[in-house]
Amino acid sequence: MSAAVTRRLPQIRSLGLSAGVAVAATAVFLLVSRALIDDAYITMAYARNLAFHLHWGMIADEAANSATSPLNVILLGAITVVVRDGVVAVGVLFVGATVLAAHWLAELAADTGLPRALPVVAMGTLLVNPLLLSTVGLEPYLTAALLAGLLRYGVARRSVAFGVVAGLCVLARPDTAVVVVVVALVLRPAWLRAIGAALAVTLPWYVFSWFALGSALPDTLVMKVGEVWSSAHEFWNGPLLYLTIFPVATALAFLPVLAGLAALVGLLVVRPRQPWARAAVAAGLGAVGHYGAYCLLHTAPYHWYYAPLIIGTTFCAAIVAVRSRWAVVAAAGLACAALVVDLQHGVPWTRAAISTNWATAAEYERMGANLRPLVGTAAVESPGEIGTLAYYCDCTIVDAFSDRGHVIAAIEAREQAGGLGAALLRLNYLHLDRAQAPRPVEFRLRYEAHEPPAGPDQWPVDHWVDGRGRIVLQR
Question: For residue 438, what is the DSSP state?
């Protein structure tokens, strides 16, 4: 091998890794692209309005602030300007985030002396995880890339870069601030530089949002915190619910979590001081910290809320696993099993492997296309899920996600509860125009369980628990 080739070998390997990951991610996206969940379409509706109208909201007629991930919306909006299609934009961002995560993990491996298999093991596991694949279109894979960046720059003690990535992580999803703080406490960057860089990234958006949109943090803070599905299932034991309904997919989704927790406990007991061990501990503790925070908030067990737990523990397990050939073989076996389950779910998927939606994406798409000529410019009340309908109808469909007037009563009820939380909530909504009233509707969509369509303006749906039912348009 010539000296020139030897010098370029790292670049050749990096390009080869990026190309391989891009091909794998593209194949995965083609598998799941027809089964994006309803909340993904909420993000896509925001991104389309931003791309084509420079408007922040789900529908053209109303400004809103219910997008939990401003960074995801902004990136998808920028891509949509070019590709002109929301689903294609989701695919481009998904592939790009996956490649970036692999790149940063490869740099982490090089910095810590870990085997070059780290990005392959970590991202290979995440790319076939049934739960994470059921979140495509939301921010989990973007979050995975940013967590990889946090670990890479934290271990390298590059505090400004760490702060920039930390700020992006909080913009990708505000609750990941818990993960950022835990990772920072473990890896200990230069605090002033890291905090300064993070604030430089995050403050422009949150100040703009506070004044222009009426709240710094999105309305989902009020809409989701404390939401209860049933007395038996909260966030802390939500995986048991999914294990009951989607047993194989859920088991394979959470096995990396168990592996990561075992690796974390082992590291905390042995306490190795090498940089790779600190990176693994930071990823694992960050994941546990996020899970603990959500348990304290008593949120409903939406499956994408478990993504930081899965991502962080998978990174922890992968960092430990690549140091042992047998552990790598076990990880490969787990990934192969997950891939088999993914493919058995359908090629391509028609519904996410783990989904809590009331209808498939295709059912909502057909309904949305049918709705537009029926309702025209009139407002129609959503049946309880709005994202896919709003995207494909491109009409005035309203609920708390699209119409700010619907959420003001909930905000004021939380504020009246008193305490520190109420005070912080009042500060968050200091600039909100509380005179907004819910938009009057001329039509309503109603979900009815176990009832097949039996007339005009009715559509069949396949509820995740109830099975077959219908959604009816009422005048």
Answer: P
Among candidate residues 343, 365, 390, the one where a domain is terminated: 343
**Could you give the number of structural domains in the chain?**
2
Would 54 be classed as within a structural domain? no
Tokens of 176: 């990941």
Q: What is the pLDDT of residues 32-74, one digit of tens each?
A: 999 999 999 999 999 999 999 999 999 998 999 999 999 999 9
**DSSP assigned state of 233:** B
| Whether 423 and 295 share a structural domain | no
Q: Is the link from the previous residue into 348 a cis peptide, with omega within 30 of 0?
A: yes
DSSP string covering 122-164 = HHHHHHH-HHHHTTBTBSHHHHHHHHHHHHHHHHTT-HHHHHH
The token duo for 335 is: 């990934």
pLDDT digits (tens, 9 = 90+) for 329-355: 999 999 999 999 999 999 999 999 999
Q: Are 383 and 449 in contact (CB under 8 A)?
A: no
**Claim to verify: residue 293 and residue 410 sit in the same structural domain:** no
CA distance 429 to 422: 11
Q: How far apart are CA 439 and CA 422, in angstroms?
A: 26
Using an 8 Å Cβ cutoff, are 176 and 291 in contact?
Answer: no
- Do 289 and 425 lie in one domain? The reply is no
Range of the domain at 223: 3-35+68-343
Residue whose C-alpha is closest to residue 73's, from 94, 45, 100: 45
Q: Does a structural domain hold residue 363? A: no
How many helices (H) and strands (E) the chain has is answered by 20, 5
| Helix or strand holding residue 455 (H, E) | none
Q: How far apart are CA 223 and CA 312, in angstroms?
A: 26
Q: Parallel, antiparallel, or unpaired: how do β-strands 467-474 and 380-381 relate?
A: unpaired
